[in-house]
């Protein structure tokens, strides 16, 4: 997927996240937003996978469920959903790890514990 297609996809995801936030409001558990956003995206014709396991290698050990991505969109865009007072550096570090381990180029951190959804969106780019 080229960068223009990825940008269009991220805009579609952001629009869906805004719709979910508009309907549900802030303050719910992340799982409620995850299921609702997956439903919204699927209804918009976007392919979504939930709780995608990423294996981790430690020497000769392979840990099958080392990490779990909240939502993987079209096998290209990683979504990490939060319901926190504010993003912390660890959230960005977590996303960068997911991006590196999957060779994806773009991830969106989506914090639903905000008064206006646009304040809860952070793009994270894998610089390879």
Order of helical and strand elements: HHEEEHEE
Average pLDDT across residues? 95
Please state the CA-atom Rg, rounded to the nearest Å. 14 Å
What is the distance, rounded to the nearest whole angstrom, between the alpha carbons of the first and last residues? 16 Å
Features:
single chain; 128 residues; alpha+beta; Trna Endonuclease, Chain: A, domain 1; 3 helices; 5 strands
Task: Tell me about this structure.
It is globular and about 45 Å long. The chain has a single domain (3-125), classed as Trna Endonuclease, Chain: A, domain 1, CATH 3.40.1350. The protein has 128 residues and is of the alpha+beta class. It is built from three helices and five strands. β1 and β2 (61-73) form a beta hairpin. α1 crosses α2. The two termini are 16 Å apart. It has a five-stranded mixed beta sheet with strand order 1-2-3-4-5, with helices on both faces.
């Amino acid at each position: 997927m080229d960068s223009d297609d990825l940008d269009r996809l991220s805009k579609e995801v952001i629009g869906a996240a805004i719709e979910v936030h508009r309907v549900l409001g802030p303050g719910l558990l992340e799982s409620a937003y995850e299921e609702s956003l997956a439903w919204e995206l699927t209804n918009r014709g976007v392919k979504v996978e939930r709780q995608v396991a990423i294996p981790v290698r430690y020497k000769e050990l392979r840990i099958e469920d080392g990490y779990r991505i909240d939502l993987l969109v079209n096998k290209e865009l990683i979504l990490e959903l939060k319901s926190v007072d504010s993003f912390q550096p660890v959230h960005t570090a977590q996303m960068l790890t997911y991006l590196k381990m999957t060779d994806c180029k773009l991830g969106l951190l989506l914090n639903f514990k905000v008064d206006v959804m646009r304040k809860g969106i952070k793009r994270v780019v894998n610089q390879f």
